[in-house]
Amino acid sequence: MSKPVLFDLAGHGALAHGLATALGTEPGRIEQRRFPDGESYVRIDSPVAGRAVMLLAGLDRPDDKVLPLLFAAATARDLGAREVGLIAPYLAYMRQDARFRAVEGITSIYFARALSSAVDWLVTVDPHLHRRKSLAEIYSVPAVAMHAAPLLAEWIGGAVERPLLIGPDAESSQWVEAVARGAGAPSIVLEKQRRGDRAVDIAVPDIERWRDHTPVLVDDIVSTGRTMIETVRHLKRAGLRPPVCVAVHGVFAGDAYEALRAAGAARVITANTIHHDSNAIDVAPLIAEGVRTLTAGR
Ligand code: R5P
Known about the structure:
The strands form four sheets. The chain has a six-stranded parallel sheet with strand order 2-1-5-6-7-8, with helices on both faces. It has two domains: 5-147 and 283-295, Rossmann fold; 149-281, Rossmann fold. With 298 residues, the chain is of the alpha/beta class. It has helices at 13-23, 63-78, 107-118, 149-159, 173-183, 226-237, 256-263, 284-295, and strands spanning 5-8, 26-27, 30-34, 40-44, 52-56, 83-88, 121-125, 143-146, 163-167, 187-189, 191-196, 199-203, 214-222, 244-250, 267-271, 279-281. Helix 4 (149-159) packs across helix 5 (173-183) and helix 6 packs parallel to helix 7. The protein contains eight helices and 16 strands. Bound molecules: ribose-5-phosphate. Ribose-5-phosphate binds next to strand 13 and helix 6.
């Protein structure tokens, strides 16, 4: 059987290369650009008829990327691809998972419907599952969520002396506790209250006993950075060492990265689910394992 074809829509060369090596895929050639009026053009230059196609898509700042992704998937299907799988290392639109005001749209559901109608399967890394337990609740195609906690734990274990893992809020406890177990390090979870898109309050309990540890803030996403920035400031005021900030997905809206460094983070580290200077943890082998699990026997 011919090799699967991997199209790198994310423009994330290193990750695409790692996946191609791990999965034995052939690189796909695709032309995507904008017409002068802003509409999208797509052309697939690699033969896909009868073959398995994988689309590697970056879905941070998703609104500009989703239509080209849907068109690429539709074109591959139209050209006879046997199946079209989506590798989305960062899965967008997972945080609006409920109606917080009576007339809001639950966009995580609408987004899931759109993707489920376009592809045959999905592999991602640590989607923001908070009020939902699994992707199957909103995605109607087979969807696998891989967990980066062991990779974060390995990085922390090798790079940080006497780490104390800190989760900024209850939602982060699932990641923090898993990473702490892997790193064999103690952990605490703080209390956060979000007052708006860019306003959060963090309550820090008595952390006197951890003064000789290096605080390591762990979260799934850094978006505006407010959660981590407020936590870094509180830890500083409490007299702890400058913390290391570790996240799976570095979305870094606006100047969030610079602001987090300026707030006093000793280091800011992310996995390469979104291409960024802070990438230090490679998820290619993890994603490849997810793809193999999902496609075995197909
Ligand atoms: C929320 O529950 C998440 O786990 C993160 O804490 C949050 O998304 C981070 O957002 P921001 O960087 O905008 O504070």
